[in-house]
Give the backbone structure.
Amino acid sequence: MATRSAPTPRIPTYAWTGFDRTGKRLAGEIKSVDEAFVRDQLRKRGVLRARVRRKSTLFESRKSVSASDISYFTRQLATMLEAGVPMVSSFDIIGRGHDNPAMTELLMSIKGQVEGGLSLHEALAMHPRHFNELYVNLVAAAEQAGILDTVLAKLSTYLEKTEALKRKIRSAMFYPAATIAVGFIVTTILLVFVIPQFEDLFKDFGADLPALTRMVVDLSEWFREWWWIALFTVVGGVIGAAQAHRRSVRFRDFLDGLVLRVPLIGDIVRKGTVARFARTLSTMFAAGVPLVEAMESVARASGNAVYEKGIRHIRDEVATGGSLNVAMENSHLFAHMVTQMVAIGEESGSVDHMLAKVADFYEDEVDQMVSRMTSLMEPLIMAVLGVIVGGLVVAMYLPIFKLASVF
């Protein structure tokens, strides 16, 4: 029985220009998975002031490197190192077998840096867009302890569970956003296309319109004339809030705190943040990272400004000699069950194991809450749309009910 061979990855083409030693302009193309290799070849040829540009073709997929790509790579690298495959060979095998050209280019770049003498964590640190501080610190601790394959396996599990948790929280946020978006679209269609037809009909009635109908007609007239103000307000508000959340610490603290107080959604975000805290700290404990050093990475990975600030206070309290469970209890950010599990872990010397159990528990809680929220939001969406559409329809038919009094 014939076996199907793995597809050969498409090797990108790089266009280059430069000058020789006499000042003559040169140009050409080189196929390579790595821009660094192209520049190295040009140096060997004596090309000066080289400019290299990757050529994109019509059929080439220019996908970016996703979090799932990094998670899958981490799992593959852990498996290969555990099997005794040399690191450079592992990067070569994983990179050339990947169907995402951007990921292939990233891995070949890291491979070249490792071959050039850098340690793995130093090479990863040169790509902060794809490997955050937590990832780099864990790899550095693993290299120092000589347990890189074990830590990479734990890290891949952490990344997989973290991404799964993010997907659950995003799905919980999707339904309220969908309700607002669908309601806005339906209302816009009625105001722009439907209500003007009724307005022409009402001009021949010869009677005053009901207050609700007059309000809807005025709203339709305003929206058709000033629709760009509404569009600018909505789009500008979303973009402005996103930029303010990124740049303003005070606004980020306010918004993240406000989200935690929203009914149902706040509970989902809170439990998701606690699960992320427990999973991250458990992974770093298992890798042998010191607690105080680990807490900084845990704070940045929390995803919520309120918890980030609280975790830094916990770090400071632990650094002065306090126990972790007491510091967590003093922060008032964690349920009693969480602090008790940590206390048991500190007494038994298995904090990482207890934190992993906490993470599993809260991840299941988030999953169940998202399922309940989904079942609740479906009829709510129908009710909201019914009120919006029904209100506009009733407003348009009220004058028709008064026709008998006019004629």
Remarks:
- Residues 1-9 have pLDDT under 50 and may be disordered.
- The longest helix spans residues 148-202.
